[in-house]
Amino acid sequence: KCGFNTERLRTILIALYIIDLAGGTLGVIMMSHQLFQRRPQSVMTVIIISLLVLHTFMLLSIPFRLSYYILQEWKFGRFACKLASAIIYLHMYTTFMFYVAIIIIRLFRLEFRKCYTTTGVAAVWLVGALVVTPVLFSYYGTSRTYLSSECFQFHKEIQEVPMVIINYCLVGILVAVCAVLTVIQLSVIFRLAVKYWPDINSHVEFRAQAKSFFFILVTLVCFMPHHVFRVYYIQNCHLDKDHKLLPYNEIFLALTAMCCLDMLCFIAGIAH
């Protein structure tokens, strides 16, 4: 059994993943079609393509999660369970890295040659594939014994000291980076608003910075709640004998997957 203590929480989780799957798939298809038609050659295009690939991998794992939460039983083996678990975390942090790259490039109006950007993005993929993923698979879900019919039940792992330290570091880095970028971005937007008032929307510079703030909003809405709750979860999971906190952790994790809806925003012209 998937360990959900109320039907309402399980319904919320299923609904979130259905929205992620439907909206994310539509966004990926539409954005891929647009890129194929226009064939733009720019630094931002390289990052957007990387986001498309990332979202696609994550979306492919969602049907397995939905199957588990609907049937309340895992039927795909331990390896598939670890893979589906790892993908959503790899997706979240790699997406965050690309968001930060987009924000910094636009914020400071940095210019890179496309070859340098491609090399940097390729390096991120190689580190993720050759370093992070093997390490994750070597230790993730291996220190405790779990039933083959259960998945995403790695709450016991998080009580290990190394895992606690790693999680606190990840939370600290994400919150600090997001806070700094938010302050800088808002100050730039405010300065431009004062400079160009009242015809602020007619100036390309202001519109570009306002659109850049979209990525910070996605981080605040999708990633921040999960990380704030994770601190509470780590501090209280040893007291949670009935695993009542686990469903809430899964719901906040499902919320992080909603960042894949960003492609619909690209299509709508929020970011380009």
Automatic annotation (TrEMBL):
Its main location: membrane. It is a multi-pass membrane protein. The keyword Transcription does not apply. The chain crosses the membrane at residues 12-31, 43-66, 86-108, 120-140, 165-192, 213-232, 252-271. One of its GO terms (cellular component) is membrane. Residues 23-232 form the G-protein coupled receptors family 1 profile domain. SUPFAM superfamilies: Family A G protein-coupled receptor-like (SSF81321). It comes from the Eukaryota. One of its GO terms (molecular function) is G protein-coupled receptor activity. It is found in: Membrane. Keywords: G-protein coupled receptor, Membrane, Receptor, Transducer, Transmembrane, Transmembrane helix. InterPro entries: GP183-like, GPCR_Rhodpsn, GPCR_Rhodpsn_7TM. This is G-protein coupled receptors family 1 profile domain-containing protein. The lineage of its organism: Eukaryota, Metazoa, Chordata, Craniata, Vertebrata.
